[in-house]
């Protein structure tokens, strides 16, 4: 049977292709002027392989392939990849250059627009390239366009008014760019529009109310912008429908029309903006709606859904990370088709009846973190709520588990993701043993003591395991070396003791992240460590010995942190052969000797402070540190701006601006050099001035002599400069006065003299930043110091930096953003985006611990 079937379909396939071929030979050849214009178009841009890693198109990542390799002058352009011609006229009507590695500006004199060459174009897809600059206004000349996709590029500026001429558009995707300004109200005149995607840009202001007249709109995604205001009145008048339903007479003339106009809406995504106000409850009664993502806004008040009819189509609903207070809407159980429900950070401020969720028979993902409820959640009961449940997020609530059930009792063995961080749990929940398909477990920040139960490591599908911030004791089990699917293991901040298991050389391991920070581990680092590691953190233990030379086999290693141990070794110059190493922290160990000429091409953060390094740094020392001198040409998509991946973000503690800051995430563009607390002597290498992307430089507590190099005036990204406690002489270079980002500086305890540079940044420093020097003077200093010869006090003041803090760290905030926003299917990853964003908000600005930089470690 099946053979016949296959043969038949093969045959029909063949017949169809044959017909195609036949048709082709009878068609007009492509018009020569259009062919030439296409080849000209190609020549306007550079094609760069580097951006070919992955392309995000139409809801999924595809491996890229430049379509234009088939573009040959001697063939019919109607048969080139990405081109479609009109069957009768031979006119090019579709141009799809998505994911083609094109770099450059699309100019208004581009051959795409010249001589009305492509005036009959109906489809223009340029998604996932690296186009920069504004959209040329001549794009409006392509007035036959019905589908325009410019997503995932670096277009910027306002959307030109000429785009308003594209009145036939039914599909418009401008998402994942850097567009700014307001959403043009003329878009409300695109009466055929069914899909409008503007997510991941910098749009401001309110949603134009004209969008309320897009009567065919089915998909609207405006997420990840800075839109403000209440849901626009044309949507908001839906609210009045509720009033009508309940018999109110507050009708305004046009509300029914608006309602009719929006009845086709099936996907409404407004997440991650700055919307305020209460939600119209009748929004949830629009029968066509399948997806509503409103999380990460400032919606407030209590919310009720209205009397939902049983035929609600709603499958995906995210409302979390707003300012809702009061009870969970009681009509939620009526949303029987829900697959994803997210209500995190809903301040219920009272009891919650968790049994209502058992009515959601189709539920797969239930995100109920941080509900501020007085109810303690029975884990056994909620895991039993639905057979379809896969992912459950309960972090930040009180959770208990009776652990009395037998294995077969539990219906929801399909659970693969369980988040129980900060739930006040005191015993490892025995029932996890029954979750055979568990992949992700986060049980961090609880109060669990004793050993990790051995059965945990026998769950076959474990992918990521977070056990940090409990009080687990005992040795790290060698089981971890056997787990084939394990990628992330975070055991940090516990009381694990003994030595690190020797089995870590296991070549079959796929472990990518190993975090053993802050335990009581002793002994040497094992000679062989998993070669698959991307991130290894063993900081704050009691490790001794040397760094194993086999680390150079970790070709994927990006982060190596061994801080605060007792490792006694010379500078690991050999690590410079690691092609991906970006973060190296050797702080507070017994490293010693000179550090010699190193060429760390990829390094972005190096902290070797508080060791016994000595010697002179040659003046060209930093010449080859290219990753700190210019950002990589291949700038990342917004979702890749932090080190790590969607399951794990690397964190670090750095001294920045005189205080220890804990970065819960490391931005890829963050750069820092901390050589403080060693015995370096000689001059500060003038090549430091090459590191134009450097943010933090700390050379304090050494024995540097000579002048501060004037090349430091080139460090235009510098925020924090500390050269205190050295033997520097001469003047502070006037060039430093121009460094507008420099928020913190410390020149104290040197032999500096002469005129202090002008500039507001210098005026903002406390007097102590200049204290104990040979004779500094100047208007800047007069502003901050009553007595310029004041000897530095023992306890240096912390600078009054709160105000600047926000500014300085706004570059962190500015870079918030995750995966591209156009996801249609039931994608848990998309939901995760909203969850994670909340975490990011919480981590900005970085936590400040009270310690001063001058404390010895
Ligand atoms: C393509 O080839 C034709 C002749 O076959 C030539 O006239 C034309 O200039 C070529 N176009 C380009 C863009 O090279
Ligand atoms: C996206 O994919 C769907 C099918 O998965 C298809 O129907 C649709 O036309 C595609 N859209 C674009 C813009 O390629
Ligand atoms: C198009 O215009 C840009 C500047 O607007 C110019 O640099 C470029 O040379 C022009 N290209 C052509 C083909 O005229
Ligand atoms: C193309 O658009 C520009 C700007 O909108 C306009 O000035 C120009 O006349 C148009 N060209 C043609 C050929 O229509
Ligand atoms: C609703 O759409 C119709 C066209 O279908 C339009 O005439 C009307 O102005 C729209 N109403 C509103 C309030 O936008
Ligand atoms: C919602 O927030 C706004 C300010 O953004 C405030 O004026 C309003 O009173 C709040 N409403 C409720 C119900 O809390
Ligand atoms: C909700 O609607 C149902 C019918 O769909 C009706 O039986 C019920 O009384 C309504 N409840 C309220 C509070 O209006
Ligand atoms: C949690 O609820 C209490 C009242 O039960 C309230 O005082 C407190 O502000 C709430 N916390 C948050 C973060 O909403
Ligand atoms: C370590 O865990 C304790 C509780 O066990 C917690 O208070 C502390 O904040 C954690 N430290 C870090 C750095 O996570
Ligand atoms: C953790 O457990 C160890 C051994 O049981 C104990 O000595 C230590 O005080 C505990 N630490 C905390 C923070 O509870
Ligand atoms: C480091 O090891 C050397 C011997 O190799 C020893 O002389 C030195 O004292 C050690 N340094 C520290 C700080 O332990």
From TrEMBL:
One of its GO terms (cellular component) is plasma membrane. Residues 64-86 form the Leucine-rich repeat-containing N-terminal plant-type domain. GO terms for biological process: cell differentiation; plant organ morphogenesis. It is found in: Cell membrane. The chain crosses the membrane at residues 808-835. It is a single-pass type I membrane protein. Belongs to the RLP family. This is Uncharacterized protein. It comes from Microthlaspi erraticum.
């Amino acid at each position: 049977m099946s053979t016949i079937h296959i043969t038949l379909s093969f045959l029909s396939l063949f017949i169809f292709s044959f017909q195609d071929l036949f048709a082709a030979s009878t068609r007009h050849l492509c018009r020569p002027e259009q062919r030439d214009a296409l080849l000209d178009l190609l020549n306007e841009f550079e094609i760069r392989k580097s951006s070919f890693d992955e392309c995000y198109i139409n809801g999924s990542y595809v491996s890229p392939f430049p379509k234009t390799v088939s573009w040959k002058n001697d063939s019919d352009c109607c048969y080139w990849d990405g081109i479609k011609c009109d069957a009768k006229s031979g006119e090019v009507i579709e141009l799809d250059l998505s994911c083609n590695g094109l770099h450059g500006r699309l100019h208004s004199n581009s051959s795409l627009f010249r001589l009305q060459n492509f005036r009959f174009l109906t489809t223009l897809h340029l998604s996932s390239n690296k186009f920069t600059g504004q959209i040329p206004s001549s794009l409006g000349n392509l007035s036959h366009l019905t589908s325009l996709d410019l997503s995932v590029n670096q277009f910027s500026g306002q959307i030109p008014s000429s785009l308003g001429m594209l009145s036939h558009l039914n599909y418009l995707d401008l998402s994942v760019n850097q567009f700014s300004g307001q959403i043009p109200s003329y878009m409300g005149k695109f009466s055929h529009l069914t899909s409008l995607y503007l997510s991941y840009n910098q749009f401001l202001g309110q949603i134009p109310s004209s969008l309320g007249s897009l009567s065919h709109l089915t998909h609207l995604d405006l997420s990840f912008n800075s839109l403000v205001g209440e849901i626009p009145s044309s949507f908001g008048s839906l609210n009045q429908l509720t009033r009508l339903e309940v018999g109110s007479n507050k009708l305004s003339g046009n509300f029914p029309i608006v309602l009719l106009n929006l009845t086709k809406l099936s996907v409404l995504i407004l997440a991650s903006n700055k919307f305020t106000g209460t939600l119209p409850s009748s929004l949830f009664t629009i029968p066509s709606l399948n997806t509503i993502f409103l999380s990460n806004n400032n919606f407030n008040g209590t919310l009720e859904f209205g009397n939902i009819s049983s035929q609600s189509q709603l499958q995906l609903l995210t409302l979390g990370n707003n300012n809702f207070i009061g009870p969970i809407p009681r009509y939620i159980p009526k949303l029987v088709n829900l697959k994803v429900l997210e209500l995190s950070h809903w301040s219920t401020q009272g009891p919650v009846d968790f049994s209502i969720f058992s009515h959601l028979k189709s539920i797969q993902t239930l995100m109920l973190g941080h509900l501020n409820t007085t109810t303690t959640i029975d884990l056994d009961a909620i895991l039993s709520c639905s057979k379809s449940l896969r992912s459950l997020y309960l972090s930040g609530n009180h959770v208990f588990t009776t652990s009395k059930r037998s294995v077969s009792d539990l219906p929801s063995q399909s659970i693969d993701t369980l988040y129980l961080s900060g739930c006040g749990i005191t015993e490892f929940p025995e029932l996890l043993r029954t979750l055979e398909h568990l992949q992700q477990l986060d049980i961090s920040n609880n109060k669990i003591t004793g050993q990790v139960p051995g059965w945990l490591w026998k769950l076959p599908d474990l992918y990521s395991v977070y056990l940090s911030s409990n009080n687990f004791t005992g040795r790290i089990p060698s089981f971890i070396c056997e787990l084939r699917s394990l990628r992330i293991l975070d055991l940090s901040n516990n009381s694990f003791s003994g030595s690190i298991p020797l089995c870590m050389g296991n070549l079959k391991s796929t472990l990518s992240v190993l975090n053993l920070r802050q335990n009581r581990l002793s002994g040497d680092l094992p000679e062989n460590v998993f070669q698959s590691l991307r991130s290894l953190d063993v900081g704050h233990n009691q490790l001794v010995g040397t760094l194993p030379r086999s680390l150079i086999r970790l070709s994927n290693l990006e982060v190596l942190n061994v801080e605060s141990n007792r490792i006694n070794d010379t500078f690991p110059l050999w690590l410079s052969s690691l092609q991906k190493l970006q973060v190296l922290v050797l702080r507070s160990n017994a490293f010693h000797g000179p550090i010699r000429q190193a060429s760390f091409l990829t390094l972005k953060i190096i902290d070797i402070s508080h060791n016994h390094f000595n010697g002179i740094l040659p003046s060209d020392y930093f010449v080859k540190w290219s990753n700190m001198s210019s950002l990589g040409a291949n700038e990342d998509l917004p979702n890749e701006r932090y080190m790590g991946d969607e399951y794990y973000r690397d964190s670090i503690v750095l001294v920045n601006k005189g205080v220890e800051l804990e970065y819960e995430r490391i931005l890829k563009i963050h750069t820092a050099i901390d050589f403080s607390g060693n015995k370096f002597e000689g001059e500060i290498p003038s090549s430091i001035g090459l590191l134009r992307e450097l943010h933090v430089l700390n050379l304090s507590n050494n024995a540097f002599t000579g002048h501060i190099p004037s090349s430091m005036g080139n460090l235009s990204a510098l925020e924090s400069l500390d050269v205190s406690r050295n033997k520097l002489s001469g003047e502070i270079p006037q060039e430093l006065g121009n460094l507008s980002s420099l928020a913190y500086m410390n020149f104290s305890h040197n032999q500096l003299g002469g005129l202090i540079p002008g500039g507001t940044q210098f005026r903002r420093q406390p007097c102590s930043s200049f204290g104990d020097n040979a004779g500094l003077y100047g208007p800047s200093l007069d502003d901050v110091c009553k007595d310029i010869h004041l000897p530095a006090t023992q306890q240096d003041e912390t600078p009054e930096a709160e105000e600047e803090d926000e500014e300085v760290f706004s570059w962190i905030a500015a870079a918030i953003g995750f995966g591209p926003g156009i996801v249609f299917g039931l994608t848990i990853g998309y939901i995760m985006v909203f969850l994670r964003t909340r975490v990011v908000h919480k981590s900005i600005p970085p936590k400040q611990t009270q310690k001063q930089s001058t404390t010895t470690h």
